[in-house]
Fold ACOT1 thioesterase.
Amino acid sequence: MAPSIRLSPASRSLFDEPLAIAVQGLGPRQQVTLRASLRDETEQLFQASAHYQAGDDGELDLARCPALPGGSFSGLEPMGLLWALQPQKPFWRLVKRDVQSPFLLQLEVFEGHGERPGRLLAQTQHERAFLREGMRRVPVREGRIRATLFLPPGNGPFPGIIDLYGTGGGLPEYRACLLANYGFAVLALAFYSYEDLPREMKEFHLEYFEEAVNYMLQHTQVKGPGIGLLGHSKGGDLCVSMASFLKGITATALINGSVANVGAVLRYKDITIPPLGVNPKRIKVGKSGIADIIDALNNPLEGPDRQSFIPLEKAECCFLFIVGQDDHNWKSEFFAVEGSKRLQAHGKEKPEIVCYPGAGHYIEPPFFPMCAASMHLLFGKPVMWGGEPKAHCEAQIDAWQQIQAFFHKHLTGKPSGTSSKL
């Protein structure tokens, strides 16, 4: 019997779902190297490989067989070939630009554990998709809003969420789309560097975000009375500002967000919140040329920088802070703790704070490989994001459950039956 790769699900799965990988038809205790490859939409190659030894029966099940030292990872890691994917081009991050097409994952089995791959024994391909069957993707161009709405299959209304990314700009849809697969109506909202929106991050007007909130509150497929907000990085502090000043927000989840306004002036009616000060002298650049910017921002508790602290005590919603304790973009844990102190000092409910040791800045949906360093648009050089690949992967899996449970609880009143894994 020739060796073959057995996958479950067989040919297609959602990107954030586990994939069971096994090889059958090998010789007893045969040594092999497994390799996973994936190309993004710019044709950049990501690869991971691991060394294995088949069982006495010639079977190799990644859920039961630990990877041996010498590859991209070792130990019992059923999803290691996905989370350990690394770009061949330095400082390149895996993102999905078109959620309507899947990523194509190539899996190969080679003979032996040599430096160079031995003879090819088996190969297969698998689609890692973003849209569940029946999901509706609706481009939104109403008033000033530039966004994409994802609606789950079936008859709504569904609990509604607005999803914001960070300083990369544009309109990333992949997180919103994956989240909508779990029964939410999710609006991926662009806020700069997209179509006719401002090209640069100089100042933001909260009225634009208010238009998006009202769009969701008035949508027939969105279940009221309030909606949720999900923001990462700069998107996080924009969500805190929205929750603090706008009506109709019930739950706000931040992934490595800030409670101070960062990077651009924020205006709303007659209110102006200046950005937190930055001291470039505190940026450390290592021999590799990669910058560590963790100390670049000023402290929002001191001097004139206090004006940049967002008055989140005005918010009428519940908060969830997801924190990577090895975030090198900024001090996410400090921001979460100070936000919590401020809320409690004003008699508000204590927010949920979930901390992940070994997780870096880009806590993405499950099985996105960790990005250790990439170009930072504002600094114009590669910066380190922090994180240790295995711990970061585990954090992404757990945080995804925490975020869904938080929104199910506060937007529908029903727990989703998820429990924390860490």
Remarks:
- The chain has two domains: 4-129, 136-412.
- Confidence is low (pLDDT under 50) at residues 417-422.
- The domain at 136-412 is CATH 3.40.50.1820 (Rossmann fold).
